[in-house]
Write a structure and sequence with these properties.
Largest sheet: 7 strands, mixed
Helix content: 40-55%
Number of helices: 22
Strand content: 15-25%
Number of strands: 18
Structural class: alpha/beta
Shape: globular
Radius of gyration: 25 Å
């Protein structure tokens, strides 16, 4: 018995020592960690996924698991201002709250906001191109960058301002710099600067709905022998891409001399959060703001510290200190911000061509066909939600509807003018209402027919294809035949939509082969949301 008691005592001591060893300790000179319990539910920008390792460490230190749910900028803002976010989440964590704060209801929906890190939106250029332009020796202004882009002296990729904060911040920065007033941009100032803004966007050759997908597209273009010269994005994205070792020609970060728009990543408590959620929020915010953790955020994600702590020296890869990066003014009113986003789609960006390849086989009869009609009609302006108003078909866009069943049908083309496009949108709505379903499913014959409409690329349109099917191929060419033809096809991405019983493996391969992406609309009522999300990538 004595031996057994002794053994149990030793086991207890070892367990206690192990527990002490496994429990994270605060860094020297920092106070003990605040404690919480349970889960902090956070509606967040998708780019914050790279903070997961640090959030895992925060859970071990504080007892609070941070559960991030990704959302687009406008969808997230809309969820907050309409009160839906507070029903499912305790906090939000967007790259910036500035657009959110322009909404009248935002103040009553949000509470404490804690800035966690910063990252300015800048231009990254392949070093060879930056040297040729002379921008390794001097810092150009945004106006000089716009002139060079308009003359096609370089090309770049940027996220869509209606879908991603980095694209919106870039749009705001360029517009404010070109306006040159030193004050917040107003709605009536957008018209006069449109020609110079349009010149800037003439150089854009890649678009995306998220910073992560934009990075992948940039790397894919280089691998395909069609390199893009640079990216307009967060400094952190450009530096992390350089650090990845995936670039043969690293990006030189160009910091415009007239200023930047900076993301500050505020972790924001939602109004009405429970007492436990408030405790959990305080523990997580305290953990993330500690100098030792701020350093880890900088080293692991390439974001700048939010703290003005002398111990947080920037890595040599960073450019000017924050104090040497003037902050360009953000619009002070919602109408100016919305007008700027609207102008981007209708007047500023390179015009789009969107080819919708639509499965109208017999299995689409009934609710599925009605769901398709509702989703397409929403893109004509029928969806009046915040995200809906910026995902509608744009001025100067060419929309082609190509139905298919046993064989490809006759395409119908709609050309929207730059302004006064409501009659054309009404024509699309009327046409969509006439769609009928019957027959088999010739997916790849229809896809090849869509590529036949792309042409030789003689115009300046940004072309993409959206493929919707609710089942597997039952007629015509198969995936192997399509795969064999891909090398000879124009480099146009196919965005595939998973719907009904569509073949997930084949649809994913089609999007991968063409440089597109797959969107899942198999949940009830999800098709309209998928169609809206795709708009950010077109």
């Amino acid at each position: 018995m004595r031996k057994l008691l002794a053994a149990l005592a030793v086991t207890a001591v070892l367990a206690a020592l192990a527990a002490c060893t496994d429990t994270p300790q605060a860094a020297k000179g920092e106070p003990p960690f605040l404690k919480g319990d349970g889960t902090l539910r956070v509606l967040a920008g998708s780019e914050l996924a790279d903070l997961q390792p640090i959030l895992d460490e925060a859970a071990a230190a504080t007892g609070v698991t941070v559960k991030l749910t990704a959302t687009g900028t406008l969808d997230g803002v809309e969820s907050v201002v309409q009160g839906g976010a507070a029903k499912q989440y305790d906090a939000t964590w967007f790259a910036s709250n500035r657009y959110l704060q322009l909404h009248p209801d935002a103040a009553s929906r949000t509470g404490t906001a804690t800035k966690i890190a910063t990252s300015p939106v800048v231009l990254g250029l392949r070093r060879s191109v930056a040297e040729q332009l002379g921008w390794t020796r001097t810092r150009p202004t945004w106006s000089e960058i716009a002139v060079a882009a308009g003359e096609r002296r370089f090309t770049y990729g940027m996220t869509n301002p209606a879908a991603s904060n980095s694209g919106f911040a870039a749009l705001v920065g360029v517009a404010a710099a070109i306006a040159g007033t030193g004050a917040a941009l107003t709605a009536d100032q957008i018209g006069p600067i449109t020609p110079r803004l349009r010149a800037f966007f003439a150089g854009q050759s890649l678009t995306a709905g998220s910073s992560g997908w934009l990075m992948d597209a940039y790397l894919r273009a280089a691998a395909d022998g069609r390199p893009v010269d640079g990216l307009v994005n967060y400094e952190s994205v450009i530096l992390s891409l350089n650090a990845s070792g995936k670039l043969t020609d690293p990006l030189t970060v160009v910091y415009p001399a007239d200023g930047v728009v900076t993301a500050d990543y505020p972790l924001t408590l939602l109004s009405g959060a429970s007492e436990q959620a408030r405790t959990n929020y305080a523990a997580v915010a305290d953990y993330l703001r500690r100098p030792s953790v701020q350093r880890q955020i900088m080293l692991k994600t390439w974001r700048r510290p939010a703290l003005p702590d002398p111990s947080l020296t920037l890595d040599a890869a960073f450019g000017p200190k924050s104090g040497n990066l003037p902050e360009l003014p953000f619009p002070g009113k919602l109408d100016a911000a919305d007008a700027l986003i609207g102008a981007f789609g209708d007047s500023l960006r390179r015009p789009a061509r969107t080819i919708y390849v639509l499965d109208l086989s017999g299995s689409m009869k009934g609710e599925r066909l009605q769901g398709l009609k509702t989703a397409l009609t929403g893109l004509t302006g029928a969806d009046t939600s915040l995200s809906g108003q910026f995902s509608r078909f744009n001025g100067r866009e060419q929309v082609i509807l190509l139905p298919f069943s046993t064989r490809p049908g006759a395409p119908t083309t709609f050309d929207l003018p730059e302004a006064g496009f409501e009659p054309t949108l009404a024509q699309i709505r009327t046409h969509v209402g006439t769609l009928k379903a019957d027959g088999d499913t010739a997916i790849y014959d229809a896809l090849l027919a869509a590529y036949g409409m792309v042409g030789a690329g003689g115009d300046d349109r940004v072309t993409s294809i959206v493929l919707l099917t609710d089942g597997a191929r039952t007629a015509g060419a198969d995936l192997a035949a399509f795969r064999a033809k891909v090398p000879q096809l124009p480099r146009v991405p196919v965005f595939t939509v998973l719907f009904g019983e569509s073949n997930t493996g084949e649809m994913t391969e089609v999007s991968n082969l063409t440089g597109g992406r797959t969107f899942d609309a198999r949940a009830t009522g999800a098709l309209a949301g998928a169609f809206k999300e795709i708009r950010g990538y077109q």
